[in-house]
Write a structure and sequence with these properties.
Blueprint: E1 2-5, E2 12-15, H1 20-30, H2 40-43, E3 49-51, E4 53-54, E5 60-66, E6 73-74, E7 77-80, E8 84-92, E9 98-102, E10 109-113, E11 117-125, E12 129-134, E13 146-151
Parallel strand pairs: 3-7, 5-8, 7-13
Antiparallel strand pairs: 1-2, 4-5, 5-6, 8-11, 9-10, 12-13
């Protein structure tokens, strides 16, 4: 389940789960399935894809869950439309204890998630790219509890290499 909150009304709505074709179509729509694009959508072949919700002040928010006995993040790929600040709520609905080691500029964030608990993390991901997260306790990552946050956009001019223009697909 992917939850998208409405910042004005405080309501939450549940987005539908995707089947394999819908997942493929969504990867293409977002731009994660093309050569020289964010091909991460092809790397993480399981799980759902979610999009961060942007609030009126420009910050974003998202909810990521661990369902009982699944050992996957839901969504396993979270897409941010641009760099910036994001508030992530993590929900552990599983009967086991897990944690989340999340990327953020300056320092990573660690959230301990005992069974049937939730936590919040404020992250700053200001540049485009892939940011991996997981649960490094036990063998959670080896068993599938890994995910990624994809920040869309181009590198700012000051961060680009001094070289001739390259062809873009």
């Amino acid at each position: 389940m992917i939850f998208e909150g409405n910042s004005d009304s405080g309501e939450e709505s549940e987005a539908p789960m995707t089947n394999a074709q819908e997942r493929s179509d969504l990867l293409s729509k977002i731009g994660l399935a093309a050569q020289n694009k964010a091909t991460l959508g092809q790397v993480l072949g399981t799980g759902t894809i979610g999009q961060a919700t942007e609030k009126s002040d420009g910050t974003m928010q998202a909810t990521i869950r661990i369902h009982p006995d699944e050992l996957t993040w839901d969504p396993s790929i979270l897409v941010m439309p641009h760099g910036g600040d994001i508030e992530v709520e993590l929900v552990n609905d599983d009967r086991n204890t897990h944690c989340a080691l999340l990327p953020s500029n300056g320092d990573r964030k660690f959230i301990w998630l005992v069974n049937h608990s939730r936590g919040r993390a404020s992250l700053n991901l200001d540049g485009p790219g892939y940011y991996w997260f997981g649960s490094p306790t036990g063998n959670d990552e080896g068993r599938g509890l890994t995910g990624a946050i994809v920040v869309m956009g181009d590198a700012p001019p000051e961060a680009r290499l001094d070289r001739p223009e390259q062809p873009r697909p």
